[in-house]
């Protein structure tokens, strides 16, 4: 069972502002039946151009309904300029937090708001202008980039939790990884992203630590399968390794590398390490 | 608040008789059945008696019963224990609707260089036997199909499948975790070589399972250790749980008729009332070949987790094949394999009954479910769209 906060439960059991505003000034709709959740948001402005009324209709799980309800409560009384600044994190915070796997519900809220404001202004958020990265859930690069920036995301798994991208067939994982790398690079340049929490290592420290980690965490498991791994070289954040023994002709070696070796090195050495295989 | 527990395909209440039978083996009779002294010997006698009860329940010989820790271990042991016995063969066949204990073994094997074939099912969840016939080759090492599906309750024609598999001389395993205790099993009359059951699905506690291994079946132990279970599964016998499972099997045999008459009638009553009272509702899975205790229903345009939590708020415990409940983002692989449309797959709810359920409980569900679905449909943007498309307001 999900560990929902009391606030999430309250907004799920007693959702505020359900329905559709009559003669709305702006409406926005995101999600679909196929994706498993969808949100239709509508709002009306008063004379001071503040949001007088905001209503939602949502198809989805408890946290999707609670996030929608929270969103309408948050934006009521705001000007559109203020509402524009509402992030998915604000929605999650309003609810006392969401399980990380459910953060995409808060992102859906923010996206519906964005779409409704654009609708009011006569603009259109056209998906076709952006590249669809995840075909299973129809998630564009723009949505992924925004989620990474706003929530300081670091892994594909996190991107899936926040945007659903990569939650289906997994074919887009390399692409998401590339986007994360690029966006984080830009964020670091602009000083937006906090530097990796792990202490900065000298090259010698890094090599030593990688060797230790391989020896302790990875070699025993590979040997159990009749394989082995050698550290060939290190270039910045790239770690070049060669698989030996049974592993070297195992069709699942790419999987072994990506999922296992890299995750262990990231855990014990540095978050930014990328593993590359050197073929014999 | 009263608890109405209708999630018995997930786990069941331990029968009071089972608990009572187990308790002395936690305190007074703590001996190791392998010991040479009288203190261990008296325990071994009881373990043997439990083995006989399990064998009797399965229509098998006691020597064919191997105790394991759970259904997953039994499934893994059956598959890996057979693969190990035929190292030259590299093709594994199963279905697209298996429990993760088999499905994920299949994907593990394919990562390890095995060829694997996952046989399809139709819209009713029925296995494509022609596809199976075509899939079998000289390299097929073992075929594994579930006896009955945990989500829909659909029963596969295991004996018919067994004849196809056995006529090709291939070992046949079935995961009967959901079938045991709900439909009659008789291994002496069956073509199955290996069969898995799990204690906690038939009113024994969690942490005990059985692998039936037909006499003469090639098998290498999966759990390597001591001589226990005639060398087929190492590890000191989990005595209290084995005693408990023996008792549970004795009771299950007794209750099988009740399961197929009274429980079936309760399930049919629940199902027909739900269909009658809630529009745009469909039953998932072949109605003719279904476990007597299970019904999977889909409510269009609403999402399963929301339904479950609102039911839970009223003390009703069920489960769902929706994406959100599984922690994944896609609805259950079973419903997807059956081609259940997206309008319905996300809103699926499974009710699974046991002998402890009553008509009052069914009435309680029937009273509270329709307003829950209506409430969620009133929130759902698609329900209104649907009504509009139907020309209603």
What does this structure look like?
The complex is a heterodimer of chains A (280) and B (393). Chain A is of the alpha+beta class and 280 residues long. In chain A, 45% of the residues lie in helices and 18% in strands. In chain A, the strands form three sheets. A three-stranded antiparallel sheet of chain A has the order 1-2-3. Chain A has a three-stranded mixed sheet with strand order 6-7-8, with helices on one face. In chain A, helix 2 (62-75) crosses helix 5 (103-120), helix 5 (103-120) packs across helix 7 (156-163) and helix 6 (141-151) packs across helix 8. The N and C termini of chain A lie far apart (48 Å). Chain B contains 13 helices and 13 strands. In chain B, strands 2-8-7-6-5-3-4 form a seven-stranded mixed sheet, with helices on both faces. In chain B, helix 4 links the parallel strand 3 and strand 4 (115-119). The A-B interface holds A 2, 12-13, 15, 18, 29, 33-34, 36-40, 57-65, 101-102, 136-137, 160, 164, 167-168, 250-252, 255 and B 111-113, 301-306, 309-310, 313, 322-325, 327-331, 342-343, 346, 378-382, 384.
What descriptive keywords fit this protein?
heterodimer, A: 280 residues, alpha+beta, Sufe protein. Chain: A, Arc Repressor Mutant, subunit A, GMP Synthetase, Chain A, domain 3, 3 domains, three-stranded antiparallel sheet, 45% helix, elongated, B: 393 residues, alpha/beta, Aspartate Aminotransferase, domain 1, globular
Largest sheet of chain B: 7 strands, mixed
Q: Under CATH, the topology of the largest domain in chain A is which?
A: Sufe protein. Chain: A
- How would you name the oligomeric state of the polypeptide chains in this document? heterodimer
Q: What class would the helix/strand composition of chain A place it in?
A: alpha+beta
Instruction: Tell me the number of structural domains of chain B.
Output: 2
Q: What would you call the shape of chain A?
A: elongated
Mean pLDDT of chain A: 86
Number of helices of chain A: 10
Give the spatial strand order of the biggest sheet of chain B: 2-8-7-6-5-3-4
Q: How many β-strand stretches of chain B?
A: 13
- How would a crystallographer describe the biggest sheet of chain A? 3 strands, antiparallel
């Amino acid at each position: 069972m999900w560990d929902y906060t009391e606030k999430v439960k309250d907004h799920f059991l007693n959702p505020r502002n359900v329905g559709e505003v009559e003669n709305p000034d702006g409406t926005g709709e995101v999600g679909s039946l196929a994706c498993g959740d969808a949100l239709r948001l509508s709002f009306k402005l008063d004379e001071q151009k503040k949001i007088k009324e905001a209503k939602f209709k949502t198809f989805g799980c408890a946290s999707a309904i609670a996030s929608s309800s929270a969103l309408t409560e948050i934006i009521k009384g705001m000007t559109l300029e203020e509402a524009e600044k509402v992030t998915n994190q604000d929605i999650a915070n309003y609810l006392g937090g969401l399980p990380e796997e459910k953060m995409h519900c808060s992102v859906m809220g923010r996206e519906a708001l964005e779409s409704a404001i654009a609708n009011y202004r006569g603009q259109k958020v056209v998906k076709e202008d952006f590249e669809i990265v995840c075909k299973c859930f129809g998630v564009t690069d723009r949505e992924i980039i925004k989620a990474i920036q706003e929530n300081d995301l670091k892994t594909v798994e996190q991107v899936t939790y926040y945007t659903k991208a990569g939650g289906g067939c997994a074919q887009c994982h390399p692409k998401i990884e590339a986007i994360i790398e690029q966006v984080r690079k830009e964020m670091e340049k602009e000083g937006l992203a906090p530097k990796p929490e792990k202490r900065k290592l000298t090259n010698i420290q890094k090599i030593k630590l990688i060797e230790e980690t391989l020896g302790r965490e990875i070699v025993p498991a590979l040997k159990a399968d009749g394989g082995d791994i050698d550290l060939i070289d290190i270039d910045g954040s790239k770690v070049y390794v060669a698989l030996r023994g049974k592993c070297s002709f195992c069709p699942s070696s790419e999987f072994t590398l990506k999922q296992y070796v890299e995750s262990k090195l990231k855990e014990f050495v540095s978050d930014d390490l990328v593993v590359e295989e050197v073929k014999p | 608040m009263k608890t109405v527990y209708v999630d018995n395909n997930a786990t069941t209440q331990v029968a009071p008789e089972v608990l009572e039978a187990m308790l002395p083996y936690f305190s007074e009779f703590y001996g190791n059945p392998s010991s040479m002294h009288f203190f261990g010997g008296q325990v071994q006698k009881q373990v043997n008696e439990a083995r006989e009860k399990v064998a009797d329940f399965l229509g098998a010989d006691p020597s064919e019963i191997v105790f394991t820790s759970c259904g997953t271990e039994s499934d893994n042991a059956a598959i890996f224990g057979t693969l190990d016995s035929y190292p030259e063969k590299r093709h594994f066949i199963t279905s697209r609707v298996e429990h993760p204990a088999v499905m994920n073994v299949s994907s593990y094997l394919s990562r390890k260089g095995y060829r694997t074939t996952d046989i399809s099912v139709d819209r009713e969840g029925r296995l494509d036997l022609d596809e199976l016939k075509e899939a079998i080759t000289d390299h097929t090492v073992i075929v594994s199909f579930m006896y009955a599906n945990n989500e829909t309750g659909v029963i596969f024609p295991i004996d018919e499948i067994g004849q196809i598999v056995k006529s090709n001389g291939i070992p046949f395993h079935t995961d009967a975790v959901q079938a045991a205790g709900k439909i009659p099993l008789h291994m002496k009359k069956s073509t199955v070589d290996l069969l898995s059951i799990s204690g906690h699905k038939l009113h024994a506690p969690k942490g005990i399972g059985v692998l039936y291994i037909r006499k003469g079946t090639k098998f290498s132990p999966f759990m390597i250790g001591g001589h226990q279970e005639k060398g087929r599964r190492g590890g000191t016998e989990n005595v209290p749980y084995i005693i408990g499972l023996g008792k549970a099997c004795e009771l299950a045999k007794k209750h099988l008729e009740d399961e197929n008459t009274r429980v079936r009638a309760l399930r049919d009553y629940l199902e027909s009332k739900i269909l009658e009272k809630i529009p745009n509702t469909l039953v998932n899975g072949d109605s003719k070949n279904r476990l007597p205790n299970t019904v999977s229903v889909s409510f269009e345009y609403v999402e399963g987790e929301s339904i479950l939590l609102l039911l839970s708020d009223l003390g009703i415990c069920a489960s769902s094949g929706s994406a959100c409940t599984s922690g994944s983002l896609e609805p259950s692989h079973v419903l997807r394999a059956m081609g259940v449309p997206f309008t319905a797959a996300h809103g699926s709810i499974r009710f699974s009954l046991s002998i402890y359920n009553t008509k009052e409980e069914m009435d309680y569900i029937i009273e509270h479910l329709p307003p829950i679905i209506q409430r969620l449909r009133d929130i759902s943007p698609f329900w209104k769209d649907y009504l509009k498309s139907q020309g209603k307001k």
